[in-house]
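Q: How do we represent a protein-ligand complex in a form that can be generated token by token?
A: Start from the inputs.
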Amino acid sequence: MQGHQSPDYKTPLKKLVINGGYPLSGSVRISGSKNAALPMMTASILSDHDIILNGIPDLADVRTMIALLNSMGMYTKKNHNDSFTFNASGINSKFASYELVKTMRASIMVLGPLLAKHGEAKVSLPGGCAIGARPVDLHIQGLEKLGATIEIKDGYILASSDRLIGSTYSFPKKSVTGTANILMAATLAEGETKILNAACEPEIAQLGELLNSMGAKIQGLGKDCITIEGVENLGGAEIEIIPDRIEAITMVIAGIITRGELRIENINSSHMQQPIELIRKCGAKLEVFEDYLYLKGSDLISPISFQTNPYPGIPTDIQAQLMVLNTVAEGDSKVKETIFENRFMHILELKRMGANIGIDGNTAIITGVQKLNSAQVMATDLRASAALILAGLIADGETIIDRIYHLDRGYESIEEKLSNIGAKVRRID
Ligand code: EPZ
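Then emit the structure tokens for the protein with EPZ bound:
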């Protein structure tokens, strides 16, 4: 995508139709990680040289981020099927409009780089979203700690700074994109910055890897304490984006609950150790290697209770998908969501499909049932829509999922991937 095309937000609400009851079998290849690609795209703002990202997934959120960067004057070029070049030497605007930011809150990650490279930024507040208020107060606090002057006016963050000065910032709670913003800003700050209680997600570790290959001086990536020695400027770099661990686990669960047999290619199994250990407890056979895994579902699915946690714990982004597995397990289970305050909206839709789930605050209590029934359901957020697909794969009859634009934000060609391994799924307007 070259120049200043904006994504088409006017696409009609599309629906997915799934005929359930077919075991999945065959081989499926996982795409590059959305949550690794997005911060690395914003990191290109920090340099005047080419940043080449290989393995970028073809997603609505990626197209939105490209449109946002293009609107600032970023040069973006699609090299070959999943490789893009970004060059920020021509950036002439430090403005991220509400129009773009409201559709994708990850846009907030242009704030740190714009501030560090250009000394100013005007970025719309993302506003809440379905799964929670999702404020950005910690992003702002961290940047102020680095010496930025930040004012909130008319729904926008107005940030300025002559030169950011290294400091120590301790996150009161772990924030993935918050860590990304402070990490990127610190690379060009004067002196040393320490980020305490930093997010340890692999996507943030890879962001740091890219920054170091651009000439940054970062230590402690993947750990709670990250140290950054500021430099004068950053050069170009090229990197292969890590596989999407959330998509991978979603496919593992699809294979298990349909009692299928799958080979899942292009994974990094070291990024999903705890989810794999947890899923093994349901009785499925999982043979895990470094960059692929083989699974065979079992007739009897044992329930798996868990709570979500920051990495390396069980990711909140697979909570809804794991809950579907529990809805048809033999027995009771408990699921506790500790990251977001409202990430149980999929429960109402699953109950309409016959699931037996009760809610007590941020804990869901699930009693397994024999079968789910097909129904017309509605996606509410990205990962909940994936959970509804999983439910449709095992429900008797035809399930219709509405508002799947949520799904297109984070899953590349999901119906092709599922159809190629035996699912009966199609898209309708
Ligand atoms: C990232 O969102 C991911 N998005 C989310 O994935 C993921 O669910 C989330 O991390 C948690 O793992 C991207 O990486 C683009 P947080 P992020 O800041 O960074 C609170 C998906 O499905 N908080 O780690 O926005 C916040 O409300 C998406 O791909 C503050 O209070 O999440 C939440 O309760 C959905 N103030 C908790 O911290 C702040 O300034 C963790 O949020 C920032 C966050």
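Residues 34-35, 38, 105-106, 132, 134-139, 173, 175-178, 316-317, 339-340, 382-383, 410 surround EPZ (CB under 6 Å). The two ends are 25 Å apart (CA to CA).
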